[in-house]
Amino acid sequence: MSDTLFSKIIRREIPADIVYEDEDVLAFRDINPQAPQHVLFIPRKPVATLNDLGEDDALLIGRLVLAATAYAKAQGFAESGYRCVINCNGDGGQSVYHLHLHLLGGRRLSWPPG
């Protein structure tokens, strides 16, 4: 995997509004938010896309989802609702090739998304 914007955020080479971190996951506010709450949860392990995950990454994906859920609860919008999205490759809307989960909340979200 190439060195990405998110890799640089993990290494603190470029600034980000970091709102959560643990040994496996880092989360920061999206610079182009699509909802009042729009936070990206990324694994510290470099994985380019969903297609690059292996069986041994099941726990890592679970940690991303659990971190996002805990954040939504802590920020008080879990009960009203939120959305978790992982885009994959160009047609799926992925623009940074470091796996990331979008947590969107704080407003009513429509369907289909686009």
Report on this model:
The protein is an alpha+beta fold and 114 residues long. It has two helices and five strands, in the order H-E-E-E-H-E-E. A five-stranded antiparallel sheet has the order 1-2-3-5-4, covered by helices on one side. The longest helix has 18 residues, at 58-75. The chain is globular, with a radius of gyration of 14 Å. The protein starts with a helix and ends in a 9-residue tail after the last strand.
**Helix percentage:** 10-25%
Biggest sheet character: 5 strands, antiparallel
What oligomeric state is this?
Answer: single chain
Helix-strand sequence: HEEEHEE
- For the biggest β-sheet, the strand order reads 1-2-3-5-4
Q: Please count the beta strands (DSSP E, at least 2 residues each).
A: 5
Question: Which shape, going by the Cα principal axes?
Answer: globular
- The overall average pLDDT, rounded, is 95
| Low-confidence parts | none
SS field, number of helical segments: 2
Structural class: alpha+beta
How widely separated are the two ends?
Answer: 28 Å
Residues in β-strands, percent? 15-25%
Q: Cα-atom Rg, whole angstroms? A: 14 Å
Layout of SSEs?
Blueprint: H1 5-10, E1 18-21, E2 25-29, E3 37-43, H2 58-75, E4 82-85, E5 101-105
List keywords for this structure.
114 residues; alpha+beta; 5-stranded antiparallel sheet; 2 helices; 5 strands
Summary, kept brief:
The chain is of the alpha+beta class and 114 residues long. The protein has helices at 5-10, 58-75; strands at 18-21, 25-29, 37-43, 82-85, 101-105.
